[in-house]
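SEVERITY: medium
COMPONENT: batch folding queue
REPORTER: lab tech (J.R.)

DESCRIPTION
The queue accepted two submissions in a row. Attaching both inputs and their returned structure tokens so the on-call engineer can compare them side by side.

ATTACHMENT 1
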Amino acid sequence: MNQPLAYVHPGAKIANNVVIEPFVTISNNVIIGEGTWIGSNVTIMEGARIGKNCNIYSGAVISAPPQDLKYAGEETLTIIGDNTTIRECVTINRGTTDRQQTSIGSNCLIMAYSHVAHDCRVGNYCIFSNNSTLAGHINIGNYVILAGMTAIHQFCSVGDHAFISGGSLVRKDVPPFVKAAREPLSYVGINSVGLRRRGFSAEKIRQIQDIYRILYQKNYNTTQASEILEAEMGVTPERDEILQFIKDSQRGIMKGYFQKN
């Protein structure tokens, strides 16, 4: 439904049953899927690709040019999956030549005043609480929860099912399945509550705990712990996911709370 008090560029492709409230601005080269609701005073700029059944609340700015001095106006994208909710005053910048796009998956909740910078990749079923801030080039897995006022350094990665406590400064990579807290950010256990909610069995949770005991609680360095896990722990998808995350880490993984950083 095209609201007469909104501006929609004739080059935008809007599904027939999209609801657009007053004072929305939608630029050229935008695609919005069916069933999506766009609240008043939302600005959607060039390169936005928004999925089906999304809800975007007042004051959000989607697909603004990246806040990167190297950006020279090249055509890039912001991709948002289906069933994702973006609350008030969220800002999401489109990509640069590095990745050509910023992407947020399906079934996510991005709460008010959060910021997702250029070239970030966010998985599915993620929850970013109020004032969460992602710098550029960050990778976020699936089912990740960021509590309020979490700030993540550029080029960091966060693994699937991780939980990061409120007010955290994330300077290192956060592996899958863990809880991260304290300053400097440290391993404080596995995200057992989240894993149970998502159907992980008690046995599977114990296996993940055993992996992280070796990695964080036996005074091994990361290389030693990885070698022990490969040699002595049975092969499981979770073990392999953790080991691959460590191998792929560019900034190094966070330490245990009693380990030197």
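ATTACHMENT 2
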Amino acid sequence: MSIYNYNIDFLRLQDNSLVVESIKESNINGVFNLVVSVKKDAKEKCCAECGSINIVVNSYYTRTIKYLDVAGYNCIIKYKQKRYMCKDCNITFNEKCNFVEKNSTISNATKVKLLEECRIKQSFKDVSQRLNVSHTTVLNEFKEHISFSRNKLTEILCFDEFKATNGTIKYAFILADPLSGEIVDILPSRQQEYLYDYFNKVSDEERFGVKYIVTDLFESYRSVIRNRFWKSIHIADRFHWVRLATDAYNRMRIKAMNSYKSLGEDRFKGKYNKYTTYYYLLKNYAKILLINRYSREKSFFERTNYVYHLDKELTLNEIIEHIINKDGDLEEGYFLLQDLYKIAKQSTYDTAKHDLLEWIDRVNNYNSTANSFKSVADTYKTWLNEIVNSFIINPKTHKRMSNGFIEGKNNYIKVIKRIGFGFKNFETFRAKILYTNSKNKLPYKY
């Protein structure tokens, strides 16, 4: 094997008939480039048009082709390509070449690397700078080779939304399979009419094969499921319905805190003033009041903390008691919230409906202007069946079904959008999301 073939193998030019004539270093606008001059040693055997062997070299022309980085240098291939003429049919044609397409100034290896880079969490501009090609080239190659159709609906689906790109519609729609970890499809709108039209195009056999659908408490999703997936069980995501109560109690805390703040500056002075002390306890220990006692060990609440405004060390239990004992509404609300946490954690599908109805009655029987749980109780009553369904155990995973998986995907989508500084075109945005999340092989070939 000649030294030229070793060079070709090192460059991975995908054509062993090429030979390297020279390798030079050049400085173009302050950027060092490695310029490799190559030509094809072998000759064509026959005419590309008529198959005649009566052909001769008509001319040479040099093509400048951008290639992958070599040893930290931007690499440029100067390809001296032959053009043949057939004496029988008088047709001229180029010699065949495997490492670059006709009329292209970018090698096939660079295009493959470009598409691989697009699968990483980075912007198209980052890819263009890394591979020394234009931003437009990256976009054009991505749009030409990357496209995704809808995946088949599975037994368990998750519905959710995320903030879309620039446009008249604020939220886009995502549906995914939590068992396989794959996104089924992404739609430009979560509007009810749009979802009706979309699922109308899905066959009855496929739609009726869906057994469970997990969503948040968005009314349009419930309407779509009732009218298009009436054989499926609709599950209200546990995190979302529990968060309603968490937010309600937090509003009660803020209301109590602001009532002390509004007393006036004359009463709101001094480190150990009873008003300032209680205000800052409510402010600084807000998260402690929202902790689920049924998901933590008892030892967690026995940890000691130095409380600045009381000038002493207290356990978390003592801090909580000190806060809620000074306000009857906060105390009642705290126990209501913890009881709901207990239902969400310990109740079963058989007992959940009874436990929830009891909790709703307790809320409705508690008369207070500071009771923020009444609206929560009304929502629970409206969504009672879907909330009770959230206690169903998945026979495959032996766990309760939730939207936790798709919430993670939404966070990933936000990262993609932020890194890309937004996307003007929704289809490009959709393809980028599906491409970076796909577990399948790359959908292109050179």
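NOTES FROM REPORTER
The longest helix spans residues 238-261.
No errors were logged for either attachment.
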